[in-house]
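Collaborator request, handled under Task 6.
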Amino acid sequence: MLVLAAVTAVVTANLLFRAAQEAKLATRSLFQAVALNLAEAGIEEGLFALNTSGYTSANGWSVATDSSTSYVKTISGINLTQATGNIYVRIDAPFGVSPVVIAAGEIVIPQQPRIVKQVRIGTARRRPWSNGMVAKNDVTFSIASSVDSYDSSLGTYNYATNRSDRATIATNSAAVGAVELTGASSIYGYVATGGGDPAIALGRIYGATSPAVPAAPAAYVDPTRVRRDFATNLPNIAAPAGTAYSLGALSVGLLGVTNLPRTGDLPGANGRYLYTASSLTVALLGTLNIKGPVDLVVTGNTTVALGGQLNVGGSGAVNPSLNLYAAGNVTLWGFSNATSSPAPNPAKATIWGTSTTSQTITMSVLSAFTGTIYAPNATLNLALGGDIYGAVVAKDINVSVFGQFHWDSQLLNVEAEGFGYRLTAWAELTSAPGSGGAFARDSRPPFSTLF
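Structure tokens returned to the collaborator:
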């Protein structure tokens, strides 16, 4: 009996030991995932700070001790019942074009080795022109307006040889008919809404692969070309700060010609010439030439009258481009863009609507407009006698008469400052610090005590 009892005791002890080991291993396995979750939470914390410029002491951030251009943050003492969690975050080069965020999640378990997971992400500036048209609310096409796309790297738009179906007309609105095609308007591309169906009369939404497309003006919607899950953030854009040349109420009169930049003016540290004006008026047969990289901030209204002209590029221009920051209403009758070859570059001529409440931008150009417009609080009226090449963003968009809109697919690659950052790479760091490997762990502050 004693022998049997001893054997039973040994077996029971072994079973209890194995059960304890299984529980310990199960707990560590769980906390391995939790540590990675904490690292991911740290990445989110860094991205949020990066996109809101929130890396301030009030938000728990401090300048890294090893670099004046990096910021660090630690969140400690997270109660996980059986353990304590800590998050460590670092942002490198937050003012650059491609900041890096590194985060580590640490799990401290009593009487056990701690668990650490570390993640690194790469970022790049967001691309505001990745769709043809984007509105907060409504996009309306009337009479016989049309949408398609082209590739400016192949040359100018050509219906037969340089035309594609890649343009997207998008809205955050979930209302039915937020994208509306009246008359015989057509979209050779895609429609994306926040939830509602587009409304069409005799219009068409189709693409190169759409089956059995009827001849115009019969109504037709290819269901594979309509999405109902669109959502995007359209932040307000502020005019650039810095030392600027004041032009007062800038007015170009009848037969007048004004060139920017002016002779003798100097560019800023970014290589661009910064000017401010209380208003901008170009009269009949007047011409405002943009001959270099110009940022023009207009605090009042902007008007280019019928017969007037706003030219970007042309003879004698050196690296011409225009950022027109307009706080008031904009009325544009005459415009030309000759910024590059083999075709004008829409990204070189941008109208930025800076009003935080409301404004109206009306384009009634009789010739082609090649450029981009970003005005998230504006009503944008495209009453076009000529075609528009580029991309537009507004609160509401109205395309009337026989407006022909062509999205340049090269704009998909254009990044812009002021829109935050997007994720470009993700990697878990698993190699030893200092090993030189691509996935070597980062042991700089605030990770110095972890590895």
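The cover message to the collaborator said: "The radius of gyration is 29 Å. The chain has two domains: 24-126+420-429, 133-413. Please let us know whether this matches your experimental observations."
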